[in-house]
């Protein structure tokens, strides 16, 4: 696990359950690649408590093939995610186009809002213009950034103002 706290599989899933049943937030981010039966249970439990499920997959090394990105996002929706989310690390412009193309395809195929983003400097364009391709949300840092290529909230707002779709 990456993040502030290192947890094993069971600890991670139990922590999510605690957050859900105690309504410690309006939404919870469940990672895609965990025990599928437990993931389904957590999704059902979250929906029982009116907690929105963002289901995510991160690849800090590369951009996956377009069909793999599409499969993962659709699988998240099939598992009951309210918002499928995928982030990856591009190495060139073609990688960025792969992610944006997959985002566009999945946006047309499912009813769920979705979130995709490419990390690093070359991925910044996906954080600013993702909405054009069907990504519903971007992340801006209020203080210290938490991911490579993440923009400050002020920079993100300024950039998005120019691309606002009406």
From TrEMBL:
Tell me, which GO biological process terms does this entry list? 3,4-dihydroxybenzoate biosynthetic process; aromatic amino acid family biosynthetic process
Provide the leader sequence positions.
none
Q: Catalyses which reaction?
A: 3-dehydroquinate = 3-dehydroshikimate + H2O
- What's in the keyword line of the UniProt record? Amino-acid biosynthesis, Aromatic amino acid biosynthesis, Lyase, Schiff base
The answer to keyword Amino-acid biosynthesis applying to this record is yes
EC no. given is 4.2.1.10
Q: Which Gene3D superfamilies match?
A: Aldolase class I
Q: Which CDD domains match?
A: DHQase_I
GO MF assignments = 3-dehydroquinate dehydratase activity
Domain of life of the native organism: Bacteria
EC class name: lyase
InterPro entries documented for this protein: Aldolase_TIM, DHquinase_I, Type-I_3-dehydroquinase
Is the Lyase keyword given for this protein?
yes
PANTHER family named among the record's database cross-references: 3-DEHYDROQUINATE DEHYDRATASE
**What name does the UniProt record give this protein?**
3-dehydroquinate dehydratase
């Amino acid at each position: 696990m990456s993040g502030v706290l290192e947890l094993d599989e069971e600890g991670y899933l139990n922590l999510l359950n605690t957050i859900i049943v105690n309504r410690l937030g309006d939404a919870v981010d469940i990672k895609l690649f965990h025990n599928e039966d437990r993931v389904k249970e957590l999704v059902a439990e979250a929906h029982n408590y009116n907690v929105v499920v963002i289901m995510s997959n991160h690849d800090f090394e590369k951009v996956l093939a377009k069909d793999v990105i599409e499969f993962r996002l659709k699988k998240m929706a099939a598992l009951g995610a309210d918002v499928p989310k995928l982030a990856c690390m591009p190495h060139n412009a073609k990688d960025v186009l792969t992610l944006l193309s997959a985002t566009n395809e999945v946006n047309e195929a499912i009813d769920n809002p979705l979130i995709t983003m490419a990390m690093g400097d070359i991925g910044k364009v996906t954080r600013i213009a993702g909405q054009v391709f069907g990504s519903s949300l971007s992340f801006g840092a209020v203080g210290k950034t938490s991911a490579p290529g993440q923009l400050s909230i002020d920079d993100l707002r300024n950039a998005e103002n120019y691309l606002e779709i009406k």
